[in-house]
């Protein structure tokens, strides 16, 4: 399946050889799912017309599926199109993964993105690109303040509170940088890609877009949409300023560069266009 065009133009330093080698290893471990795979149906946030909307938690689970090479049916679901069984038996929670055994017809329903990710990794495809590497839970804990701090800042509409909320965000980003600086490899757990990485990366993607769109703050300078939007009319001086800002967290910049350009991240079944992400955060702000 061809990937959509990357929204990240190649106007920045090349990846380190270490990162390239690690990506080659990761690609080698991503194999097609076994023939005995059950039928998978993934329900996620969608429009009434059935179009996929922004959800970093669904994106996390989809990245796990992509790294496993697992085929699945995607069902974007709005509040008015949720099936009765989801509403009655699972409180309408999304995302939701339904597995159905092809031989017996037995169904398993799993909600909550982390529960889905662990189920895919440990129960469905334990031998394909294992993602529960040593230390991943500690890594999750180390970077967990980031998303809440980012969301609190983006959704804040009181300018007087912005400095306090931005400070919390910057401290959370510094914690991510420290975690990466402490590793010998390119991931949150060193040389091994884990669930911690796949949970964090969609949240970083949302942050890059929402912070630039609503707070005029850049944490990654190379997000340059090809269509009109976030950087219309930007001068060379403004671009240079964004580059300098990102260089204050060099490992985080490298990390985002590598992950945002991976074939799994850009898989057309799970990649969410930046315009949709921006629109979603606009609604969250009440704009």
Automatic annotation (TrEMBL):
Taxonomic placement: Eukaryota, Discoba, Euglenozoa, Euglenida, Spirocuta
Database matches in InterPro entries: DHAR1/2/3/4, Glutathione-S-Trfase_C-like, Glutathione-S-Trfase_C_sf, Glutathione_S-Trfase, Glutathione_S-Trfase_N, Thioredoxin-like_sf
Family per record: Belongs to the GST superfamily. DHAR family.
Alphabetical list of SUPFAM superfamilies matching this protein: GST C-terminal domain-like, Thioredoxin-like
BP-aspect Gene Ontology terms: ascorbate glutathione cycle
Name the UniProt record assigns to this protein: glutathione dehydrogenase (ascorbate)
Source organism: Eutreptiella gymnastica
Superkingdom of the source species: Eukaryota
Single GO MF descriptor: transferase activity
CDD domains in the cross-refs: GST_N_family
